[in-house]
Amino acid sequence: MCQVSYPTVGAQKRPIRESLYQLVQSIPEDELDTRNQLLQIGADALAKAIELQPLEPEYYAGTGKLYGYWARTVDPSKFEQAVEFYEQAFQIAPHDADFRNELAQIYFEAGHHEEAIEQWQRALEIDPQYPVIYYNLGLAYFELGEKDKAEEHFKTALLLDPECEECAQQLELLEGDRR
Questions:
Q1: Which domain holds residue 101?
Q2: CA distance 64 to 87
Q3: Using CA atoms, how far apart are residues 59 and 133, in angstroms rounded to an integer?
Q4: Can you give the pLDDT at residue 8?
């Protein structure tokens, strides 16, 4: 399966959340207990942050991202909690395209491609010039076998970001499939 792209712009705005995410990712996959413990510590810390600043959408989205990763790597039952935390972030910050992109990625990685597409389309309503979203939509349509839609989205991403090597590679793969 293709990997969706995480936004670099959003990462610049969210250094603490990204640092926690990178720390957890650095733990070897075979050390599930250590990974699970660190994820629980992160969840507890973010719960405390929410308690102290309940109107900060970053904490809800950060918790959603953490639970999404937890669901994908350790405990699939955490998936619904990931979605719930993003929904809480949207109540506070309904116009954050990065949050929509992140939730879509969680859906995509869990195999819920239709829900991912819906979230990415909502992100484009907020920011129609966001090349990462078009790229990710291309991947989702490709996974669903809708190659014409995938091609359309990869081309749009490449128009918006001519330096997008992944976009060019995906277009080449589509061309190879058609030969």
A1: 1-116
A2: 9
A3: 22
A4: 37
